[in-house]
Amino acid sequence: MIHNTFLIRISNKEILATTQYWPVEIPNSVLDEFVSTREDLHREHADVSELALTVGDYKFHAKDVITDVLLVFVTDKGENESSIFEKVDSAKTILKRVLAKSGLEKVRETFERLIEPSVTTRLKIALVGEGGVGKTTTLHLLLGDTPPLQYVPTIALNLETVENIRFGNYSLVLWDFAGQERFRTLWRFYFHGADVIFLVCDSALRNVIISKDILKLIKRDAPKVPVFALANKQDKPNAMNPEVVQKILGIPTYPMVAIDIARRDEMLRILMTAASQYVGVALPDLPPSELLKFTATATEEAIAET
């Protein structure tokens, strides 16, 4: 995950602009040490290609934008270096273009917006399950909308929530599949496109058994995609204990009442847990409001253009 980005004047180590995507503060001393080490490395080995450098708990990836101006992306130590350098190169190209046209002050003023498309990575999360178990209601709950109290079947695929939620530098794309039998031939195409899958059941024994069969399809068609279960409708008298549901399904299972708007933070925390496990970062003990951001339309359009 990308924690922070910096635009730095190399000669005096002045921070010209910065963005933060994760609640990690990079000490100035660590940033200075990185810049100094990088400059020493380039001075002693002029022909060396750009290398990621680890200082303390952070990994630094940087490229010169122009003479004396450095663009830096800071990530966790386990991040893939080549993919981050691709993002740095993309952002560098945008910054150079604006620098040439409008100057450094314009870049400083609009830095976060300019690099947003380069920083952002989509994380695609699918909700699957039999019809009527509460998939679309769960989407409404995540967005803070009043959940529908009357069941309206989803037709094929619901994409109303694309790009609405930011988690670090990830843009969470959420959708739910139609659960009706006639749409199930489409599922395998969507399984392959997902990074994380939530299998939603209504906590009744009959549906849990059906969900176990659906899980077999997921494992067959997308064996590498992590799957989590939502034991929804825990307010119903016939609802099974989520621990029992977990033992039947054999995957991490979370209780939920998706029609209860008061449980939104709980659902957001479940979403963050799944996302953090996929990304490979520890989830800080902070409320969802400090870790998730609901994007503005302008940001969504900027992401869509990349």
Properties at a glance:
alpha/beta; Beta-Lactamase; Rossmann fold; 2 domains; five-stranded antiparallel beta sheet; 13 strands
Secondary-structure blueprint:
Layout: E1 2-9, E2 14-20, H1 28-44, E3 53-55, E4 58-66, E5 69-75, H2 81-102, H3 104-109, H4 111-119, E6 121-128, H5 135-143, E7 157-158, E8 165-167, E9 170-177, H6 187-193, E10 196-201, H7 205-221, E11 227-231, H8 242-249, E12 253-255, H9 264-279, H10 288-291, E13 292-294, H11 297-304
Would you kindly provide a brief summary of this structure?
The protein is an alpha/beta fold.
What does this structure look like?
By secondary structure, this protein is an alpha/beta fold. The chain folds into two domains: 2-119, Dynein light chain 2a, cytoplasmic (Beta-Lactamase); 121-304, 3-Layer(aba) Sandwich (Rossmann fold), CATH 3.40.50.300. The chain has helices spanning 28-44, 81-102, 104-109, 111-119, 135-143, 187-193, 205-221, 242-249, 264-279, 288-291, 297-304, and strands spanning 2-9, 14-20, 53-55, 58-66, 69-75, 121-128, 157-158, 165-167, 170-177, 196-201, 227-231, 253-255, 292-294. The strands form two sheets. Strands 6, 7, 8, 9, 10, 11, 12 and 13 form an eight-stranded mixed beta sheet that branches. The chain has a five-stranded antiparallel beta sheet with strand order 2-1-5-4-3. β4 (58-66) and β5 (69-75) form a beta hairpin. The protein is elongated, with a radius of gyration of 22 Å. Residues 297-306 have low confidence and may be disordered.
